[in-house]
Specification:
The protein is of the alpha/beta class. It contains twelve helices and 16 strands. Strands 1, 2, 3, 4, 5, 6, 7 and 16 form an eight-stranded mixed β-sheet that branches. Strands 10-9-8-11-12-15-13-14 form an eight-stranded parallel β-sheet. A hairpin with a 6-residue loop joins strand 6 and strand 7.
Length: 327
């Protein structure tokens, strides 16, 4: 079995590569050649943590993988560890033998960024030039990378974070890596107003957006808080936007952004217009008019992990990266 570290993976694949394989994974969802069971969640109340097990199989890509991702809020303060940790095991789908164990947090960020990139490809205006980013943690960089990979017209990023230092670190890194102008703004309102694309990637359990700030023609990608009792988007946004999701089952189970307004009677359950796989496959249209307000909500789908893990493994064999071990 091959052991692959984050550093190994960073040197193996680019964002455009990941977007391509994740798009194929969503096509398999649409064509029903993928098996993607509901994720299993284990709450470790003793330590205030959570473990999530996410398996998937892609028939056409022949990718069989399982991700274990953990969420321990106290890790940074008490253990000097990230809040989110993940690992992925890739198996041979013909024999079942384990092929690789790889660091999963970076793959998660890449495939989540890729999903955001696909949403932008199909749902954002093609002439979008300004991206507003609320929340500049680990996920923000891959989201902006994917946005720039999809739309060459993007000229500027406006970023807001409750931690000014974190926002400034993001601005420096994004400007260097993407060769794009990045401006740190003082409020979420300033970040949203005038942006063609708005990306939210926060841990906030209360709305960080006010629907009155968002103009027609804007596209919103919401990737932040996951849980039925918290949300990033307010009632006004979900009421007036055309809603797309990664999977309806996942969002209606895990996303307070829609669960809460449905429960309050603000929007009907059938407010969701389409799943991303339906748009990618052409079964339902993406953006039709420049003045539409579109919103994509994602809680994560394991087919993206499986597709990306398979790509990483294949690339590692070609260049001879990783440590081989016998179990």
């Amino acid at each position: 079995m091959l052991i692959l570290t984050r550093k190994d993976i960073e040197n193996l694949i680019e964002m455009k590569d990941v977007i391509d394989v994740v798009e194929k994974a969503f096509l398999e969802l649409a064509e029903q050649t993928a098996i993607c069971p509901t994720r299993l969640v284990i709450n470790i109340k003793k330590y205030g943590g959570q473990a999530v097990i996410m398996p998937a199989y892609l028939g056409k890509m022949d990718a069989l993988a399982t991700k274990i991702v953990t969420n321990y809020a106290a890790n940074p303060q008490e253990h000097d560890l990230p809040t989110i940790l993940a690992s992925i095991i890739l198996n041979n789908s013909r024999t079942g033998e384990p092929l690789a164990l790889m660091e999963g947090s970076y793959i998660t960020a890449l495939r989540t960024g890729a999903v955001g990139g696909l949403a932008i490809k199909y749902l954002a205006r093609k002439d979008s030039k300004i991206v507003g980013v609320i929340g500049t943690g680990f996920q923000a960089m891959t989201q902006v990378r994917a946005a720039c990979a999809m739309l060459k017209e993007i000229e500027r990023v406006k970023a807001y974070d409750i931690s000014r230092d974190r926002g400034e670190r993001f601005a420096v890194e994004a400007a260097q890596k993407l060769n794009i102008k990045v401006e740190i703004v003082k409020s979420t309102k300033e970040c949203v107003e005038g942006s063609d694309i708005v990306i939210t990637a926060t841990t906030s359990t209360v709305p960080v957006l006010d629907g009155d700030w968002v103009g027609l023609g804007t596209h919103i990608n919401s990737f932040g808080w996951m849980g039925p009792n918290g949300r990033e988007l307010d009632d006004k946004i979900v009421k007036k936007a055309k809603i797309y999701v990664d999977t309806e089952e996942g969002v209606l189970t895990e996303s307070g952004d829609l669960i809460i307004p449905i429960r309050k009677g603000i929007i009907p359950k059938d407010k969701i217009y389409a799943e991303l796989c339906e748009v990618v496959s052409g079964k339902k249209p993406g953006r039709r008019q420049n003045d539409e307000l579109t919103c994509f909500k994602s809680v994560g789908v394991s087919v993206g992990d499986a597709a990306t893990a398979k790509l990483v493994y294949e690339r590692s064999l070609k260049v001879g990266v990783g440590i081989e071990v016998k179990l």
